[in-house]
Structures are given as structure tokens and as C-alpha cells.
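Repro:
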Amino acid sequence: MDLKDEIIKLILKEEFTPIQSYLEKIIEENQLVNANLVCWVPHEVASIVQIGWEDGLLDDIKEFLNDTAPKDIWKNHDEPGTPFRYNFHQHIRTKLVGNVSITLIVKDGKLFIGKYQDLYFYSPVFNHIPEQMIFCRIMKFD
């Protein structure tokens, strides 16, 4: 098994950013046929989300997060003098919808995910921290 590391650099313009094309680019550039991609997000207030691409699903998820973890309720976590005052709701939202890591399978040169699935980078602080990254460890099997 060969190991190689890649970093996906993102400039976020929205809360949910599609990332499947970045992963497909890694597959193509590294000529992967059978491999695993272990992807990890180093930022605390961000996650990787694997969801269906059905119409309205992202809007429903955003409403769910607003209802479940509303802003301005929890006041224990505080970062005075920053845009992140009382942002526990942003921390918990990233844990509710995604994970900081995901292992993806590359089979026969293609990302092996469900027919109706898509992958997103989720960051509720995208407007304050637009530059983000995903660390990918490639485990190549052929």
C-alpha cells in the first residue's frame, strides 16, 4: 500500500460548500484506481457532510440547525473582542450535521458513494474564516 498526503484549500463563500469535484480531482491527478481517501478537517467549527442532493434538502437542514441550535441562547462559551462571541451554536451545529473526518472509497477509478449522495464542507463561520482546508491521506492499493 502506498501513502500520499494531499491538501484541499478552500475559499468559502457559503455555509455549505460542495467538495466532490475537489476529491475527484485528487483521484484523477493521482491516477487512483482502488484506494481509500481519509479526509480530515483541522478547524473546530467545520465538518464534512455526506448527504443527498435532493431539492430543498440543504434548506431543510439549515432550518433544522436554526431551530435545534439557535443563536444567542448559550452564553458560557465566549471569545471577547472577536466575531465569535457566544458561538456555541456554531460549534454544536458542526457536530450535528457532519464529522471532522470521513473515509471515502475509490473503486475502479471513481469515488464510490451513493447515486444520490454529495459531499459538502460545512462551516457556519465561513464569513469570518473563509480560508479552510481538508487534509486527505491517500491509501493506494494498486
